[in-house]
Amino acid sequence: MRRLIPLLALLVVPGVASANGCPTPCSGQISSPEGTQLLYVQPAGVGGPVHAYDTASGGRLFSLPAGITSADGRSHVTAKAYRFGTVVSRLRVGNATVAGSVLVDGRWQLAGVAPNGRFAALARQARDRRATDVTIIDLTRDR
To answer: What is the C-alpha separation between 33 and 52, in angstroms, rounded?
Structure first.
């Protein structure tokens, strides 16, 4: 039985490698959508900016601001707090265009994104500082 445990551990390790062949710090959650020839790199890790490189030329095509990319690799969500509220934007990963933006009352931080990029979770410290407020917004309906 003791000999079987190391063998099982070796079988599990390859399953941890990321699907696009790039180690986690290189690509985070992002992988190229089907039919594209782009490499997405997150030098600061998940939650940081995303740089898109053309695999044919090696040149950088565009960059996305710090945020969280959806698991399907199609949407990248950012949140920027201002005095008048927080602007939450959903960007298309494939071409860096804005798919939509929502203004949320108050100062929030981006905490998570749904796998399909439709919903975002925002968090902030409650006024009494003993709790955390969380809200979920629908990025497709401006709510």
So the answer is: 12
pLDDT tens, residue by residue, 101-125: 999 999 999 999 999 999 999 999 9
State whether residue 1 is helix, strand or coil. Answer: coil
φ and ψ at residue 136, rounded to 5 degrees? -110, 130
Buried b / exposed e across 18-35, counting CB within 10 Å, b at 16+? eeeebeeebbbbbbbeee
Give dist(CA 109, CA 89) in Å, integer.
Answer: 12
Kindly report each contact of residues 49-58 with a partner whose C-beta sits within 8 Å and lies 24 or more positions away, as own/partner: 50/76, 50/93, 52/93, 52/96
Kindly list the structural domains of the chain, giving each domain's residue range(s) and its CATH number in brackets, ordered by start. Answer: 19-138 (2.40.128)
**Helix, coil or strand: residue 27:** helix
pTM of the predicted model over 0.85: no
Please say whether the beta carbons of 28 and 10 come within 8 A: no
Longest CA–CA span in the chain (Å) reads 63
